[in-house]
Every structure is written in structure tokens, then in C-alpha cells.
Amino acid sequence: MDFNPTSTSQRLLTALASLLLAALFVGLYASIAPAATLNVDIDQATLVKLDKPGAEIIIGNPAIADVAVQSGQLLVVTGKSSGLTNLMVLDGAGILIYDRKVFVSADPKGLVTVSKGVSRETYSCAPKCDPSLTPGDSAEYFEALSKGISNKLGLAQSAVDGTTAQQ
What we know:
With 167 residues, the chain is α+β, with helices and mostly antiparallel strands. The protein has three domains: 1-33; 37-105, Immunoglobulin-like (Sandwich), CATH 2.60.40.1080; 111-161, no CATH class. The chain has two helices and ten strands. It has a four-stranded mixed β-sheet with strand order 1-7-6-3, with no helix packed on it. The protein has a three-stranded antiparallel β-sheet with strand order 2-5-4, with no helix packed on it.
């Protein structure tokens, strides 16, 4: 059996180069791979724990989801309306440390939809049925319910402030 140091060295270098190239492609793919999705229900909160403190929070569409910072490494994401947006967090040096798509949808458990011709009304039935403010319901139903909720919140805020609410 012949031992040829040149061909052995060339094979070793070729194997090493192939391994480095493969590692480069894996790293490149990981940097362009699509972000994972964070699923949140409407009117529900989800905790997001960061590996290190975030300095800047960016939410693509604040009408779909809202973010509150509880600490430098703990965020609360609340679903506001159905849809898809994204959440990005940058550290103090401006480096992206968190990047996720945020999918917000209604939890169908306990919801009852009543169709009246082309109009729709949604109720939350757990166990008693109460009107539920749900995007897509008829404008008249949605506006009346929204006004009632705003009045209730105004009364609660007045009680906290010690003032009298105007109806």
C-alpha cells in the first residue's frame, strides 16, 4: 500500500474546506430563516422572556398587538384585534435580540356568533352569555357595545380619581 502525503493532505484540506463551507451556509440560513410565530388571543396577555435586557421595543402594527415592559427581560404582549404583525426587540447597542411574528386571533372557546341576515353579533358564553366586543360584528352592535364599555371605564376612572363622571 502506497502512502502519498500530498494526496492525503489534499483530501484533508478538501474535507476541512467542505466542513467550513457547510458551517457558513448553516449560519447564513439561520440568519435569514423566518422568525417563529407568537400566538396570542384577543384580549389576552402572553409573557415573553428575553435572554438579555431589551432597550427598544418595536411592534409592527399597534392596532393588532400591544407590548408592555414589566422588566428589562420580561414583556407582556396583549392581543388587541385579529391579524398578523411583528415584534422586534433591540438591545442597548441596537442589535436585534428578539424577532417574532405575532398572530392574534379570537379564542373560539366560549364564543357564540349570532347571524341576523348580513349582520353579526358575538357573545362570550362562559357560562352566562354576555356581549363580546369582536371585530367583524355589525357596526351598530359594535359601536353600542364599545360606547357602553367606554362609559364603564370612565366611571371606574372617576372612582379612582375621586371625581364625578359625565354621562
